[in-house]
Amino acid sequence: MFTKFFYTLKNYGLPVSMNEWQSLLEALEAGLAGSSLIGFYYLGRAMLVKTEAHYDRFDMAFAAFFKEIETPEGLPEKIWEWLNKELPEVEVTEEMRKNHQQLDLDELKRMLDERLKEQTEEHHGGNRWVGTGGTSPFGHSGYHPGGIRIGGESRNLSAVKVAGMRRFQEFRTDETLGVRQFQVALRKLRQFTTRLDGARTELDLDATIDKTCDNAGRLELIWNRPRENAIKVLLLMDSGGSMISYSRLCNQLFTAVNRTAHFKDLKVFYFHNCVYDWMYHDTHCSLNNYTPTDYILNHLSSDYRVILVGDASMAMYELMRPGGVIDWELYNQKPGIEWLNMLRRKFEYSVWLNPIPRKYWTWMDGSYTIKKISEIFPMEELTVDGLERAIKSLKTRQAISAG
Amino acid sequence: MSASVKAYQGSSGYIVSDELSNSVNIAISLKKPLLIKGEPGTGKTMLAQSIAESLDMELIIWNIKSTTKAQEGLYVYDTVQRLYDSQFGESDVANIKKYIKLGKLGESFVAPRQVVLLIDEIDKADLEFPNDLLWELDQMSFYIPETKETITANQRPIVIITSNAEKELPDAFLRRCIFHYIAFPDPDTMESIISVHHPKLERKLLEQAMETFYMLRNINDIQKRPSTSELIDWLQALVIGGISPSKIKKELPFLGVLLKKNEDLDTLLNQLQGRGNAKNSNVLGRFR
Q: What DSSP character marks residue A146?
């Protein structure tokens, strides 16, 4: 039964490894689930799920797998009271294990109903009545494999119900995978310098030796500033309609760039379809929230590394003609290609990442504009490898084609 | 939970959900590190203090910064001090042991009793940081080449690791942890948390404040949502300011305590305006 649950989890897209599964079985052996379904739910979740983004998948898999199992509700208050008593520990012997085969759930329910009718007093220990400890199939903290837990630790909600509530739905991002790989690639984008401000905390060995020699052997320590990354990054992302199909990939990149703490500065802007006069601050590309592209060209220093992300495929006029902007209420004096050239001339370290796989570039719909734009910017596909190549080219100045 | 393990059930100053105490106990009995994630202000760091308090153990805190190296947690060999000492002959430099200073992880290993070790905000460190600690956390021992010594834990410390999800943690590391995400407390839990901090709060004030608080949290575009600690501060401000409960929702007094970003304040104002909410005109008037 448990092995089946393992595959159910896998089917629901949870990356469960054998190691974790093994530890879960050990934990079960050690009785950490408290022999209740809710205990098993929490135990399983704590051990198998490693990010809140997967809580929802776990809930769904759990609910689907255990939906048949219910715990009885609406027991008389009195029985709750009996059950809430403290109790001595029960030792489980081999013999006891043999005596208690799994009981059928329906049969259990029927038996419980009968017992409830008959029982008139508290029971602790023993093997028949509803009570704590003991080996009756009804009650809690006792031992009966496959009995019905009444009260004890999982008093309020059945595990299936907790799982069924799917409280962690909003954490589903599906975007966390791959982020780390992008991050690792982005780490290579660094250029160390010691000329920044900061405390001198690193021992400069050569200078120390020189100085100490000057002092005829009397030790004098020379400290230096630690090296810091001086790279500044300007990330420009296309958030036009045709990009929606790549939004997951772009989100991964965005998250990775955003979480990469080692850049000296990071600025992110969005453009709609192609770069025109406006650089928007958010993905909605609304006109009450933008910075003029002119401003960016004039105010950012040219040592910013510029990463443009876009599919680069559009209608020819959108790139080549004035007024080619896709939004109805806008008009651009300069054609998109002019803006791109200006960006390229200003920022010598720049690269274009295209989420469309390279093999389609030459023959798909927007192949003309892809070709045009890749003449301006070095273009790489948006994959981990592509990003690595792009970063290599961001480290050196690229020849600017005559635009 | 078997009776042989001391079970953690929260402490007087810290409200813990069943889920969380469950995870804590699982981690303790399986002797695995417990990785805690959650929104800022949900009491991740407080948890370790509470565990230490309730199990009567010493708490050792290792605060991680962006410059922290895994090695620092194990030990630091103070070569400079030794060099100085050798020059001025002030003490016996032949004894390298004197210059080996154990880090926080090392300290928790050699402690005479079992301790709680909090590795706070592990995501602040370099990407490879968690990987560098895998062996030490697994085996609970490390080797000091300078003194040819192996430091092994007397008692496996209870390791609590917190993360704000600024960076993804490596899979190999995650596989070795018990993971728990502290969900934002629902109103009921929140009330009991508040009653720990403000035991004598007026009922009406609390209700109004909570309602406003959850209203603010539910605005989608807010970047930094107010958290528990901000609510507690806000209540304090409301009490000291002597604000009447009826005014809380209408005027949103001391809003700066809850919303720390200018952008968020703007978003809120836009929203209130967008709804054409006449009764909020008081708030708008104050900021425009």
A: T
